[in-house]
Each structure stands twice: as C-alpha cells, then as structure tokens.
Design goal:
Layout lengths: L3 E5 L5 H7 L7 E4 L6 H7 L5 E3 L10 H5 L6 E3 L10 H6 L4 E2 L6 H16 L2 H9 L17 E5 L3 H12 L3 E5 L12 H7 L2 E4 L21 E4 L8 H10 L4 E4 L19 E3 L8 H20 L20
Parallel strand pairs: 1-2, 1-3, 3-4, 4-5, 6-7, 6-8, 8-9, 9-10, 10-11
Length: about 325
C-alpha cells in the first residue's frame, strides 16, 4: 500500500523526529517543514494526509491552513492542549483531531501539590534567607496543608488526580467543572473561588474559560496554583493582588505570553513561584505520550478507530484521494 504522507510539526530535529516515528515503518512517508515558519507550513500542507501537531502552538492549523491541506485526513496532537487549531474548520473538512488525554495527569497533579507545599511552607523564602546568611526560624510563618480548603478548577484526568492527592493529605477538597455533577465534591465556581485556601487551576483554555478565574475574588491570604493555561487566569488582576498582599502567593507554570517576557512584573514579586511550563514534563509522562501518539497513528494508517477525537468527526480515518 502507498505510504501515507505524514507531516511532523513538533519542534524537534528532523533526525530525532524520524527515529521517534520509526515504529510506523514504511506505512508513512515523513516530512517536516523547511523552517518553523508559517509560510513553510503552508508550502508543505497540500500533500499532507496526516499531521502530527506542534505542541508549542507555533505551527497551528487554523482555518487558512486547513484550506491549504485538501488531502488532510487526520491530525494527531501530541499533547493534551490543542491551542491554535481550528476545531470547527477541521470538522467542516471532515478531519478528526485527536489529543493525548491523561498522559500528563500524574505529573501535573504532583507539580500542583509540590508547588502548594512549597508556598505553604515558604521553602523558597527559607532557602534564600539561609543562603544570605540569615536564620529566620520565627519570621517565615509557614502553614500546614492538612485541613485546608482546596478548590480544583477543572475535573478532567488532571483535576481528578489533584483531588485524590490533596485529599490524601487531609485537605477538604471540592472541584468545579463546566458540567455540574450530583457529587458532594462538586461546588459552584463562585463560592469555590471565594472560600478556598488554595485554588488549583487545571482546566483547558477555550473561549468559554478565558479569564475564568479572577484572583481578586479569592479570599485574603489564599494561594493560587495555575497549571492550565495563562489565559484562564486574569494575569493582570493576579499581578495586582499579589503586589497588594491580598493573596498569600501564587505558583505559575503557564503565562499569557511564553516565555515570560523580560520586565514582566511577575518576575519581581517575591511571593510567586515561577515555572517554565514543565509541570507535565517527566520521563514517565513523555513515555506515555509517545505510546499514545504512536498507537493512534498506527491505528489511523491501519484502518482502525483512533482514540480521543475532540472535534466530533468519526474515528475511522480514510484517504481523501488515492
């Protein structure tokens, strides 16, 4: 059978990309854009039948890109987020888009717990003080996590794992998701944000969730943990309430603009833990991501149903042209 034309967009060297896709054998012919630029993407899309997406969102498939790909039959995104892809345009073209849900759930949830503990126990401040020759045994005022109210915004695989971990430490945990549930753990968003000692944000970014969490509505001294996307939390409001001392602190793995620009005021605030969007990056999570991605690509080219289609298109992949 003629190999499928697979266009690989992840930000990896071509030889690395080919090694990772080697298990697909001669069932696919792998290509990469000549450069990580939009014009280079548009130039190679006309022959692409399968696209392996770019997890950075730089080479996303918007409506124009979908129109430039008449042979496109399937998009596999090697991440949970599908930022930048036009799901409606892909659906209108009959192209299913799948992601890799759950592969980073443990990694992200552990980061959220670790970040909360770091803020609660003032670990960064203690480390800086000792390095500076100080010994502030009485001045840091750390808090225990047991017994604290934790509100988790989002209840996909990551949110569910967060609930499990925080409850295991003796926290009183509730969660909010866009679909109300007959579950004692479910709580409406406004009271959750208003009363939680710790608000953990792990919901996907969309037009509906953009600006969903306003830190100014959180209780005095509360902690905000954001491992979702920068746009879910009002970053301007967050900067102000941190600067004013209204919040006890924040841990951020994601930002409105990434990398965080020079001069961003978040860089200068002492009560913020900053992380370069790596909450889900562990060898274990990467292994699960590779397995899920390769399994779905193999299913696509073998005529089996693919998993985790997000845009409502059927999961059986067929060629547009033979």
């Amino acid at each position: 059978m003629k190999p499928w034309n697979l266009l690989a967009l992840p930000p990896l060297p071509e030889e690395v990309m080919r090694r990772l896709l080697a298990p697909l054998g001669d069932r696919v012919a792998v290509r990469v854009p000549a450069a990580r630029e939009r014009d280079a993407l548009l130039a190679v899309l006309p022959e692409a039948e399968i696209v392996l997406g770019d997890w950075t969102g730089t080479l996303a498939l918007d409506a124009e890109a979908v129109r430039a790909a008449p042979r496109l039959a399937f998009v596999q995104q090697p991440s949970v987020g599908v930022d930048g892809h036009d799901l409606d345009a892909l659906a209108a073209a009959g192209v299913p888009l799948a992601n890799t849900p759950g592969v980073s759930a443990v990694a992200v949830a552990e980061w959220c717990l670790a970040a909360t503990l770091s803020l609660s126990r003032k670990l960064a401040a203690a480390d800086a003080a000792v390095r500076a020759g100080e010994w502030p045994q009485q001045g840091l005022q750390p808090h225990e996590l047991r017994g604290r109210r934790v509100g988790v915004v989002g209840y996909g695989p990551i949110g569910a794992e967060c609930v499990t971990l925080f409850r295991a430490l003796g926290c009183e945990v509730t969660y909010w998701t866009r679909t109300p549930r007959p579950d004692p753990g479910f709580e409406a968003l406004d009271p959750l944000v208003a009363v939680a000692d710790v608000v953990v944000v792990v919901i996907a970014l969309s037009d509906v969730t953009r600006g969903l969490v306003d830190p100014a509505r959180m209780k005095q001294g509360a902690l905000l943990i954001n491992a979702a996307r920068g746009g879910v939390v009002d970053q301007g409001s967050l900067t102000e309430v941190l600067r004013s001392g209204h919040l006890g602190g924040a841990a951020l793995d994601v930002f409105d603009v990434e990398p965080l620009p020079p001069g961003d005021p978040l860089r200068d605030l002492p009560n913020v833990l900053l992380s370069p969007h790596v909450a889900g990056v562990t060898p274990e999570a990467t292994g699960r991501l590779l397995t899920a991605t390769l399994d779905n690509l193999a299913a696509a080219v073998e005529g089996r149903k693919v998993d985790a289609v997000l845009n409502g298109v059927g999961p059986l992949i067929s060629r547009k042209f033979t």
